[in-house]
């Protein structure tokens, strides 16, 4: 049985003009020690999916349907008091901006000790010793001195290492990392991701990595989800998706990587932009931006405009795309005629 199973997750935001669906029928699973990447453009629903796992969706957002089963416990129906025993303890989260995560008026040591004592009955001395060991694990220089520093006295890379140390304080089963290297320079990004990968492998911690950087996903994760307009459109082994992206959207993301462009030429990009969630196109939400949705003679394909694509198996991946379904159908027809 998977450590985490998400089935048909539906998240909405109640607005005056009506509910807006931020997530639609999101399904995935995560095994113990597995590393899963969630990718997509801004507005695809990546962070909403992460926050939903711990029911951290702020009002007017709410979980409208679906199931989130963690180690046999249904999180969607769990009380706030019960959830507090899981948040930060069995499931930890690393947020985008460490300065927004750390309390600026408390020292690093005070914040780490407070976190430990909220979940365990231990003395302040024991909590400080554990905090010191965790800072050593994330390769903080002079960790005993850093415990008495305030967040503003540390560099961005140092603060992010401390956030990782806090996430590991209570030996969680899952770490959710939401764009953990957004505000850092390229060199520090590589160091932080290498550290996070090493710690997850060493302690057999499952990782959900949310990012728009396909290069990072290819190096760190074993499986990945591609999201668009609140829906998963492709999922499967990372290597298989990176090497052979199936839907036009995933192909567009791959082609937009700088290394895919000819030196000196303009970077490739997906035309148009992500649609507003309260004005989603009919059928496949990507069809206004998709080259496949328009036939050579200039007409739109009825299936792309009228029908929401259902998942089909393609190799070891699951893909929600009419193009892939049509290609599979075209491959099957000659075989059936021969029979």
UniProtKB/TrEMBL annotation:
EC number, as in UniProt: 7.4.2.9
Name this polypeptide is given: ABC-type dipeptide transporter
Catalytic activity: a dipeptide(out) + ATP + H2O = a dipeptide(in) + ADP + phosphate + H(+)
Entry's Gene Ontology cellular component terms: plasma membrane
Ranges for domain ABC transporter: 6-254
Compartments in which it is found: Cell inner membrane
GO biological process, one term: transmembrane transport
Top-level class of the enzyme under EC nomenclature: translocase
Record flagged with keyword Nucleotide-binding: yes
SUPFAM superfamilies named in the record: P-loop containing nucleoside triphosphate hydrolases
NCBIfam families xrefs: oligo_HPY
Keyword terms, alphabetized: ATP-binding, Cell membrane, Membrane, Nucleotide-binding, Transport
Membrane topology: Peripheral membrane protein
Species of provenance: Halomonas cupida
PANTHER family hit by this protein: DIPEPTIDE TRANSPORT ATP-BINDING PROTEIN DPPD, OLIGOPEPTIDE TRANSPORT ATP-BINDING PROTEIN APPD
A GO term, aspect molecular function: ATP hydrolysis activity
Family affiliation: Belongs to the ABC transporter superfamily.
């Amino acid at each position: 049985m998977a450590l985490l199973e998400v089935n048909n997750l539906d998240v909405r935001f109640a607005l005056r003009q009506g509910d807006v669906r931020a997530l639609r029928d999101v399904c995935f699973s995560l095994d113990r020690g597995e590393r899963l990447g969630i990718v997509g453009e801004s507005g695809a629903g990546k962070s909403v999916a992460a926050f939903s796992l711990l029911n951290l969706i702020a009002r007017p957002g709410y979980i409208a349907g679906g199931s989130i089963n963690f180690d046999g416990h249904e999180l969607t129906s769990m009380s706030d008091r019960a959830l507090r025993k899981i948040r930060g303890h069995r499931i930890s989260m690393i947020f985008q901006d460490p300065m927004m995560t750390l309390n600026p008026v408390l020292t690093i040591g005070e914040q780490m000790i407070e976190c430990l004592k909220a979940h365990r009955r231990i003395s302040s001395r024991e909590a400080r010793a554990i905090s010191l060991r965790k800072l050593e694990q994330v390769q903080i220089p002079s960790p005993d001195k850093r415990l008495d520093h305030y967040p503003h006295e540390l560099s961005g890379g140092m603060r992010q290492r401390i956030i990782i140390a806090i996430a590991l304080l209570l030996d969680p089963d899952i770490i959710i990392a939401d764009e953990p290297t957004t505000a850092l320079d390229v060199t520090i990004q590589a160091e932080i991701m290498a550290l996070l990968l090493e710690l997850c492998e060493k302690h057999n911690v499952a990782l959900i990595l949310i990012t728009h950087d396909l290069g990072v996903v290819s190096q760190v994760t074993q499986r990945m989800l591609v999201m668009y307009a609140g829906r998963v459109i492709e999922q499967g082994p990372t290597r298989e998706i990176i090497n052979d992206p199936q839907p036009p959207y995933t192909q567009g993301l791959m082609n937009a990587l700088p290394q895919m462009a000819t030196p000196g030429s303009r970077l490739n990009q997906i035309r148009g932009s992500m649609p507003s969630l309260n004005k989603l196109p009919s059928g496949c939400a990507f069809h206004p931006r998709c080259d496949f949705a328009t036939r050579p003679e200039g007409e739109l394909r009825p299936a792309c405009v009228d029908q929401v694509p259902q998942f089909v198996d393609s190799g070891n991946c699951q893909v929600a795309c009419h193009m892939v379904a049509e290609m599979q159908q075209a491959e099957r027809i000659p075989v059936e005629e021969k029979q």
